[in-house]
Write a structure and sequence with these properties.
The protein is α+β, with helices and mostly antiparallel strands. The protein is built from 16 helices and 20 strands. The strands form 4 sheets. Strands 8-9-10-11-14-13-12 form a 7-stranded antiparallel sheet, covered by helices on one side. A 5-stranded mixed sheet has the order 2-3-5-4-6. The protein has a 5-stranded mixed barrel with strand order 16-17-18-20-19. About 7% of the residues have low confidence.
Length: 609
């Protein structure tokens, strides 16, 4: 029974996501015929009653079905919805409370809780069904004395509003003494319900409500679906009658309205929500064919996207195994084989792949402080012809870039940004130049760079989470300082005022170019940060392994401290503007453009405490 309850609970959670989506979308469909809002509730009903779903690469659902594992009794990480904030909040609060109280006795608190909740759930369903059946039988007994008027229409003085009752052969029941000028469209209203099988839909909705009685969002959905059902039926009657009946229709609705319990409500003409229905009736206008066509397309697309679950992405554990890598290469149709597999330790391995043209691909998968880091590198030997290099970039590299998202896990975000990078590479054959790409994708940092040397062309990619990115920046900063020392570039700890004074003293002749006369480390703030591609020509051609510029990837900003401010260029970074606005130690290279100093923020780290 507990397993069945967990299945229903998963269905309820998934349906809740769909219901929230429909409620939001419904707000934007106010001016559209209500039949479209009503149609969307069928998707929620599908989610509530079907334990399975279809999968699609595009879906409005944020999670796959099966958010709560069926073996939750033995697992304490109880939620994996794909939304880290929600998952962590639930798991951190639930985990300590559900640990077994006495492992020796075998007592499991989680098992006891699930079993107890399952019993309450079953009891709720039984009470719900008994009440529904009793209400139905009581109503049937009241209608025994009704008189047949014609076809399936009956009249009785025991009711106050017309309604439809029955399943296989539904009947329309109307109260006596309804004015003849109102009787026609009242009957049409109930006939519309029957024609659209609303009586079947409402019965299924009742059983879904009984199944998910513990979920308040499903009660709200039932209420809103009934409201949309009635308003769409009102509109259908008015659309199919040539004359304007809005006033008479509203008066009839008002006079026949009765309050219902909301549990087993027959399809009554005068249900609750009378005020909303009358407003909708009085403001109703026949929609144009264009609006109807557009609405159909939009609603069908939304319904499909809400009916499907996103394709599940396998989560690979780091360090990767050779079996993982080989299986993914085969699935993706990548013609490479593992040449070396080197296990550094239990937290890291390094894999070398190659192909028949000696293009080498390295994968460094590691775990640091409990977080995954993925480094990937491609080496293209210099003996490749320009056509072979171009073919690699346009065909093989794009497919191999997708491995980053597959192995690391953030597939959609990484695929999107790496796709943009490939577009940049293809533009005017930019892959022949040095390229640097740094992006933040959710909680992950993506860095891609490319260098061209005599021996080979090399492309580097690194992905790591936000939690360890600052530590990476600090360690990389030290490595770059070592490179600066090798190239005899002096590191100066200065203020903004001292940097500007040094620039004036060291100014060169107009025909001289010295890219790396000084390197400054200045503690300060950046403001007025914005993307600016209009950079000096001298930034285009690198002459040092220490400074690899990229003219298409710069920000402009103002650097200031207590001594003054200066305009700077900032290499494109995955740090956010808020992080750059905070006090940081900015590493700056200075050179001259037509005798004027140009300052480029090469790197920014948090100042040492």
């Amino acid at each position: 029974m507990s397993s069945l309850f967990l299945i229903v609970l998963n269905m309820s959670l998934t349906a809740s996501y769909a219901a929230i989506s429909v409620i939001i979308i419904r707000f934007f469909l106010k001016k559209v015929p209500k039949i479209f809002s009503y149609a969307l509730w069928i998707v929620v009903l599908f989610r509530l009653m079907c334990p399975f779903s279809f999968k699609s690469n595009i879906s409005l659902m944020p999670v796959n079905a099966g958010v709560i594992p069926e073996n939750i009794i033995n697992e304490y990480s109880v939620m994996d919805a794909g939304i880290s904030v929600a998952d962590n909040a639930v798991n951190n609060s639930v985990h300590p409370a559900l640990m077994p109280l006495n492992t020796a006795s075998g007592f499991n608190m989680m098992e006891a809780i699930i079993e107890g909740v399952s019993i309450v759930w079953i009891m709720g369903i039984i009470i719900f069904i008994i009440y529904g059946i009793a209400s139905y039988l009581k109503l049937k007994n009241v209608l025994n004395a009704s008189t047949l008027l014609c076809d399936n229409i009956f009249e009785t003085d025991q009711i106050k509003t017309p309604f439809v009752l029955g399943i296989i052969r539904p009947k329309i029941y109307i109260p006596v003494d309804i004015p003849s000028n109102e009787l026609n469209y009242i009957i049409k209203h109930e006939q519309t319900h029957i024609k659209r099988f609303d009586h079947i839909i409402k019965l299924i909705s009742f059983f879904s409500l009984a199944l998910h009685w513990f979920n308040p969002l499903i009660w709200l959905s039932f209420f809103l679906m009934s409201k949309d059902m009635e308003m769409s039926c009102d509109e259908s009657v008015m659309r199919n009658i040539d004359e304007d009946i809005r006033i008479n229709y509203s008066n009839s609705l008002l006079s026949l309205s009765v309050k219902q319990s909301g549990l087993l409500v027959p399809l009554a003409f005068g249900e609750s929500n009378v005020k909303t229905r009358i407003k909708n009736i009085l403001s109703y206008k026949k929609p144009s064919k264009l609006i109807l066509a557009a609405s159909v397309i939009i609603v069908v697309c939304i319904a499909v996207l809400l009916s499907t679950n996103p394709v599940s992405i396998q989560q690979y554990q780091f360090p990767l195994t050779s079996e993982d890598i080989e299986s993914v290469l085969e699935e993706q149709g990548i013609d490479m084989y593992i040449r070396d597999f080197n296990t550094v330790d239990s937290m890291r391995n390094m894999v070398t792949l190659t192909n028949d043209r000696n293009i080498t691909f390295g994968i460094d998968a590691q775990v640091r402080d409990g977080y995954k880091i993925l480094n990937m590198a491609w080496y293209l030997p210099s003996r490749l012809t320009p056509d072979e290099v171009q073919e690699f970039f346009h065909n093989e590299l794009s497919k191999q870039f997708e491995l980053a998202g597959i192995f690391y896990g953030n597939k959609k975000g990484l695929d999107k940004e790496l796709g943009k990078l490939l577009e940049y590479y293809f533009k005017e054959e930019n892959y022949n130049k040095g390229a640097y790409w740094s992006k933040r994708i959710g909680n992950d940092h993506l860095r891609v760079s490319k260098s061209v040397q005599q021996v080979a062309t090399t492309i580097y990619m690194m992905i790591m989470p936000d939690e360890i990115y600052e530590d990476f920046l600090s360690s990389t900063n030290e490595a770059w300082k070592n490179t600066a020392e090798i190239e005899n570039i002096k590191i100066c700890n200065n203020t903004v005022a001292e940097m500007e004074e040094t620039a004036k003293e060291d100014i060169l002749n107009e025909n001289e170019l010295d890219y790396f006369t000084k390197h400054f480390a200045i503690k300060g703030y950046l403001k007025n940060i914005k993307e600016n591609k209009s950079v000096p020509e001298e930034l285009i051609n690198p002459i040092s392994s220490y400074f690899i510029p990229n003219k298409d990837k710069y920000l402009s900003a103002v650097l200031f401290d207590a001594t003054g401010s200066v305009d700077v260029f900032v290499e494109m970074t995955s740090l956010s503007k808020d992080e750059l606005n905070a006090e940081r130690e900015h590493n700056i290279v200075m050179f001259y453009n037509n005798g004027k100093p140009v300052y480029v923020v090469r790197f920014s780290i948090l100042p040492a405490e």
